[in-house]
Amino acid sequence: MAQRTMAQQQADALALLAETALHHGIDPGAPAERYQVVVHVDSEVLADAEAPGQSVLEDGAHVPAGTSQRLACDATRVVMRHDPDGRVTEIGARTRTIPPALRRALHHRDRGCRFPGCGIRFTQGHHLRHWAHGGPTTLSNLALLCRRHHRAVHEEGYQVHRQPDGELCFRRPDGRLLPEVPRHPAVPADPFGALRAWHDAQGLDIHARTSMPGWLGERLDVGYAIDVLHPLAG
Ligand SMILES: [Zn+2]
Ligand SMILES: [Zn+2]
Q1: 33 Cα to the center of ligand 1, angstroms
Q2: How many Å lie between the centroid of ligand 1 and the Cα of residue 110?
Q3: In angstroms, rounded to a whole number, what is the distance separating the alpha carbons of residues 37 and 13?
Q4: Region 187-216: what's the mean pLDDT?
Q5: pLDDT at res. 2
Q6: Cα-Cα-Cα-Cα dihedral of 57, 27, 144, 129, to 10°?
Q7: Distance from the CA of 89 to the center of ligand 1, in angstroms?
Q8: If you measure from the C-alpha of residue 112 to the centroid of ligand 1, how many angstroms do you get, rounded to a whole number?
Q9: Residue 89: enclosing H or E segment and its boundaries?
Q10: What one-character-per-residue DSSP string does 185-209 give?
Q11: Distance 128 CA to ligand 1 centre (A)
């Protein structure tokens, strides 16, 4: 994965601190309203990052179209319609792109970031096919990704799609497949006792000298080694 700049790492660290604080209820305000970033983005830009149109923060700072698409993946959305002169003609109701019930189902299914080997629990919902492209907000079109990997997918050229068998398939920017990493096995409540019991069941007697070699420096006995190793010997 591309090396992050110092500024990016610091921004990620600050965001992680803020998310951790919010998850622990340090500032218990209305859920989902405690912090917000407002991005104004034209629907053409949301559907096609190359299309002409605006993608700006509330204060006018420009936001790359890929970033707008990432933020819009899992956000509160207000659709405004303008006439050709720029006057607002219609403002829709605020809606969550991912309704709460669906989000609960998504968390229950994915549990953490689905990027191979990640599994971080602070996640955002990612539309495999963006809703601006007509992708539905359904479980099969959603996957949980952490902030870092959501950015990798929208802004760094990584690709993810769901295969016909329902499994996710991740690819590097050059198209090479990212192999799925097996999940870590669950650690039992009493790992030492569980390991002891497992050894006992296998008839193994593990003690402080178990890993010491029995070799005392003798020369290799080639005849004996061949006898042991060669299938036709003896
Ligand atoms: Zn996304
Ligand atoms: Zn991740």
Answers
A1: 20
A2: 15
A3: 18
A4: 90
A5: 61
A6: -30
A7: 29
A8: 15
A9: strand 88-91
A10: PPPPSSHHHHHHHHHHHHT----TT
A11: 7
Helix (H) or strand (E) holding 224: helix 222-229
Tell me the per-residue pLDDT of 178-200, one tens digit each, with 9 for 90 and over: 988 877 778 889 999 999 999 99
Residue 56 belongs to what H/E stretch? strand 55-57
Question: How many angstroms separate the alpha carbon of residue 82 from the centre of ligand 1?
Answer: 26
Percent of the chain with pLDDT over 90: 33
Centre of ligand 1 from the C-alpha of residue 129, in Å: 9
Contact 26, 177 (CB under 8 A): no
Give the CA count within 13 Å in the CB-facing half-sphere of 58: 3
93 alpha carbon – ligand 1 mean position (Å): 22
Query: What's the average model confidence in pLDDT over 63-82?
Result: 82
* Whole-number pLDDT of residue 182: 75
Q: What is the Å distance from ligand 1's center to 134 Cα?
A: 14
7-51 pLDDT, tens digit each: 888 888 888 888 777 777 665 544 445 556 677 778 777 777 677
Residues within 5 A (CB) of ion ligand 2: 113, 115, 118, 120, 146, 149
Whether this prediction's pTM lies above 0.90 is answered by no
**Smallest-distance ligand from the CA of 153:** 1
- Pick the more confident residue, 88 or 11: 11
**Nearest ligand, measured from the Cα of 117:** 2
